[in-house]
Amino acid sequence: MTPLLPLLLLGALSGHADAQDPATAAQPAPQTAPAAKPAAPRPRPAAPATATGTLTVNVTDGGGLPLQGVEVRASGALDREGVSLATGFVRFLNLRGGDYRLRFAHPKFVLLERDVTMRPGVSQTVDVMLSPAPDAEAPVEKPAPPPASANTAPPGEPASVAIPDFIEKHFIGGRDPQKEDPLGCTASAKTTLVQVNNAMPERALTDADEAILVVYGEGTVRLGNRDVSVSAKALSLVVIPRGTVRGITRRGRNPLIFVSVLSGPPCTR
User: Fold this and answer.
1) pLDDT value of position 68
2) Whole-model pTM above 0.70?
């Protein structure tokens, strides 16, 4: 029994030493840094004041059906005119930001005016419903045009024009919106050189077909609801049957120049 006493005393002393050893004392838990807040999203830069957009107008009657043949005029920073298609749509391209007044006219519906604000560089759609006129009279039918054989207009004079030389002498100024110079005139056709700086309003000819041959610059021809790119480099030719709504816009810094041939009615200078 005596030999076990030193061992018991040694074990007790060893355990006491371990409890007092600062190296084995519990260390405080490290503090973690607070998580960084996510950066606030940067605001999207506003479009410049000179940016343009497209205004699409949807014209319907009281039953929600599309109205064709409504004359629409937009007055404001830029003036534009157009006629609604069978789908009821009228589209004005390259409108600057600002306030516009829209005027809707049709012989069978009440005249309507509406104010619209265009934001720079933003395209938007406006829905308009017209009310039937209370005492709308039936439209007077226009007499049919006489056949071509009965046309008594003078036949005109032969003409030959060198287009590059003609353009050099009659080139459009930088501030002029557009310029038209007659090239030829016959009993049933009119040929004109058209130079465009600003966009031409959409229109539809009811009594003439039109052929357009691009000879300088590049741009876009609006045919109904379809845009067609044209350029002198491609020697683009566009044929537009009567009744088709068309609008013309240049593209780039140079004017868009084309030869327009209107065929149908007699030419008048």
Assistant:
1) 92
2) no
